[in-house]
Design brief:
A: alpha+beta; B: alpha+beta; five-stranded mixed β-sheet; 10 helices; 17 strands
Chain lengths: ~180, ~450
């Protein structure tokens, strides 16, 4: 072995070792980097999910406010009466008021029906009138109830020589707000 | 480039003062032997070293081979050289084609070959490697000198006798390229009778053995007075390489050779005796160095990337913590929404029912709007109004008062047509009994 060959060989060996060390370092750095990249991807996913949750929460907040607004308007509409007479009591209160106002008419009723928080009292108003204007007046009066309100889906008129036989079929409707709230 | 010239009893080192080829200014150092060389070399700037060494085993010859393909010619030359220089154990060979000739249809080449013992390069290469320099060229001073002198030749087949310090170099050029070289030790400057004897013997050898007949002897020397034209067997001439003042400097010829080497390194590549093992190892070392540098750069690049990613990850952790806090703070919203929706879910059917019922068409106004079409020609018995779907269906039954049947039917048809024309009215059914004069009409009112 020549002397310069040995010196160069040693130098080559040193470079080889250094190269291996640096290459190893590069590999380790690459691994660390890939772990970091994966971690960042995971973090981005988490941030995306959290942002989604916040967006959903904001949407739900907005939806909730809309529902509360509608709810509030509805309750405000029925508030005047409903606060005093809840449920069935309010129905009979309205019945009394109609019976008192529409004098000379018979008002038949059947038992109150409660279904899906809606309280219905079916009524049939029968009577004889001289002219049609009075029928219009009674119909207007019944439709004028805000709450509980009166629904008249059927009117039957029979014309005799001495007047008009009128039959109005409908129902007084109230809501069971206590059961809901 | 740093030039190292081995002399009889010392080693001279010439380092270019300036950069680039053609720079003629050299800084000169001198050491006694190779052991002192690393100290001096390590102090000189520059990486590459060219050596003009003194190799006692140096032998040269002129061989003739048939014209062959390059690879095959190499093998033949190598084989021929080994047989000619059998006294050299481990030779480093060089060769150069001198001429090509065709005789009787066969083309053959004359090749100048030379060799030195590889072991003789060890000491100088070790010194260079130890000083962290790279040896780019190893040759002999006379060999490079011969290539320099080649440029001064004006005629073919010249014999040149050159007087350099401590040596006389005898060269034969055929036709204008080096065909033979002999180095004779000589202590005195100028040509002595012994030198003339050597010159004449060599010319005779050229004539008899090589069959080359030099036409002239060219002398290169500072001591021109020692040149005697009557002492040679062929005509003589003296070549002057520089001006009188330049030539008078002792190392003028050396500087001339170094300048030539500096500027003509490519065409002198054939005379490089650098061992193959040294060349391959240094090449490998260069590759390793390049790879090391690339790996280091890569490591720096990836480190930077790792660092920036780590900073980003840390920043993300902070961002996530802020988002988590926000999410924590809005968690009650979900519960509130659930409760509100639950209540709203119960109220919504009521609201829908309410809206539907309140907005439904009133029955009595619909009855009135239909009754307005009937005048005194009709006596109405019964009227029924019933809400059906989005509209109100009105059924009217009665009798026609008129006694004239013709106008009765026409009037009734006219009435039905008028009712049908009214916007929002649709006559669903109509009937008239002529005999009893009773009628019935069903109208759907949708507006």
């Amino acid at each position: 072995m020549r002397v310069y060959g040995k010196i160069l060989g040693d130098r080559l060996k040193r470079f080889s070792i250094a190269l291996n060390i640096v290459a190893g370092l590069v590999v380790i750095l690459f691994l660390i980097n890939s772990v970091l990249v994966s971690y960042i991807k995971y973090q981005n996913g988490v941030m995306l999910k959290l942002n989604d949750i916040l967006a959903i929460a904001n949407r739900l907040e907005s939806d909730k406010n809309k529902m509360l607004e509608v709810n509030s308007k509805f309750q405000k509409m029925i508030e005047g009466y409903a606060s005093k007479f809840y449920g069935v009591a309010s129905i009979y209160r309205a019945y009394d008021e109609i019976a008192y106002t529409v004098k000379g008419f018979s008002i038949d009723l059947v038992p109150v029906k409660v279904e899906n928080n809606i309280i219905r009292l079916p009524i049939t108003i029968k009577g004889k009138v001289k002219d049609r204007q009075l029928i219009a007046g009674i119909a207007d009066y019944l439709q004028g109830f805000n709450y509980p309100f009166v629904n008249v889906p059927s009117i039957s008129i029979k014309m005799d020589g001495d007047g008009l036989d009128v039959t109005m079929t409908g129902e007084i409707i109230s809501y069971d707000m206590k059961g809901i709230l | 480039m740093i030039y190292v010239i081995q002399r009889e009893s010392s080693i001279e080192i010439f380092a270019g003062k300036g950069r680039g080829k053609g720079n003629s200014a050299f800084e000169r150092y001198q050491v006694l032997d190779c052991s002192e060389l690393p100290n001096v070399l390590s102090k000189i700037k520059g990486k590459k070293v060219a050596v003009l060494g003194k190799f006692p085993s140096f032998s040269s010859d002129l061989i003739t081979i048939p014209k062959l393909k390059e690879g095959l010619a190499e093998k033949v030359i190598s084989k021929e050289a080994k047989s000619r220089f059998s006294n050299i154990k481990s030779p480093i060979l060089i060769h150069k084609k001198v001429s090509e000739m065709t005789r009787e249809g066969v083309t053959s080449s004359q090749i100048f070959i030379a060799a030195i013992e590889a072991e003789e390069t060890d000491e100088i290469l070790t010194a260079i490697v130890s000083s962290n320099k790279e040896c780019a060229y190893i040759s002999l001073f006379p060999l490079v000198l011969s290539q320099l002198l080649k440029g001064y030749l004006e005629i073919e087949n010249c014999f040149v006798a050159c007087d350099v310090p401590n040596e006389k170099v005898l060269m034969l050029f055929s036709p204008k390229d080096l065909a033979l070289i002999r180095v004779m030790p000589s202590e005195t400057e100028g040509f002595s009778p012994l030198d003339y004897e050597n010159i004449n013997q060599t010319i005779t050898f050229c004539r008899e053995s090589l069959r080359i007949f030099p036409s002239k002897v060219l002398f290169v020397t500072r001591a021109k007075d020692t040149v005697d034209i009557n002492n040679t067997i062929i005509p003589t001439e003296i070549i002057t390489l520089g001006t009188e003042s330049e030539v008078s400097e002792g190392d003028f010829i050396i500087k001339l050779v170094l300048e030539f080497l500096n500027t003509h390194s490519i065409e002198l590549a054939w005379a490089n005796f650098l061992p193959v093992s040294y060349v391959s190892t240094t090449r490998k070392l260069k590759v390793y160095t390049a790879m090391f540098v690339v790996a280091c750069l890569l490591a720096v690049g990836v480190s930077f990337n790792v660092l920036s990613n780590a900073i980003k990850a840390k920043d993300n952790i902070y961002q996530i913590s802020i988002l988590e806090k926000k999410v924590q703070s809005i968690l009650p919203t979900f519960e509130e929404y659930k409760k509100t929706k639950e209540i709203f879910g119960k109220i919504l059917p009521l609201i829908n029912f309410h809206n539907q019922t309140v907005s439904a068409k009133e029955v009595y106004p619909s009855i009135e709007s239909v009754l307005n079409f009937f005048d005194s020609r009709y006596k109405i018995d019964t009227v029924d109004g019933k809400r059906e779907g989005a509209g109100v269906t009105v059924r009217i039954a009665g009798k026609v008062v008129s006694t004239a049947l013709g106008s009765l039917v026409a009037d009734f048809d006219n009435l039905v047509m008028e009712l049908g024309k009214k916007e929002g009215f649709k006559v669903l059914q109509s009937g008239l009994d002529i005999k009893s004069k009773s009628f019935n009409i069903t109208v759907q009112v949708s507006i």
